[in-house]
User: What shape does this take?
Amino acid sequence: MGDDWLNTAADVFSSIGTVGAFGTGFVLLRREHRREAERDEEARRAQAARVSAWVEAYRRDDGTRDLALHVHNASDMPIYEVDLPLPAPAGEESRTEFIGLVPPGQTVRRPAPSEWLRSYVEPEPVEIEFLDSAGCHWNRDEQGKLVRSRRAVI
Assistant: This one.
């Protein structure tokens, strides 16, 4: 009976060790998958994070002040389908400034609505929507928050 009890105890401890090793391996595998998912998301956001849009005043050749919308693509790849949704006063229909393509490393400038000049104080970010070179749609709001949108690619 002494040997049977000893063999049974050894089998129980062996089983517990096997289950523990499996559990530890599973936890480590989940952590690694999570790290890979985070790295993938960072890689996916890398180009989009280098795109910005703002409104800023400039002097015309005749000396008058005017406003322009700026879109800067600091990435190494072009961005496509660039839209700048323009806020509208209550009761008016909002509109969008379509820019299309912004080449890598360049800033595109378009005229801003002239009525914005009355309330302009200093350069400030504006909302931008665009398609990156991997085909992902992105939106950056006026506070700079970058979100991948679920808009379908046509």
The chain has a mean pLDDT of 86. The helical segments are 2-46.
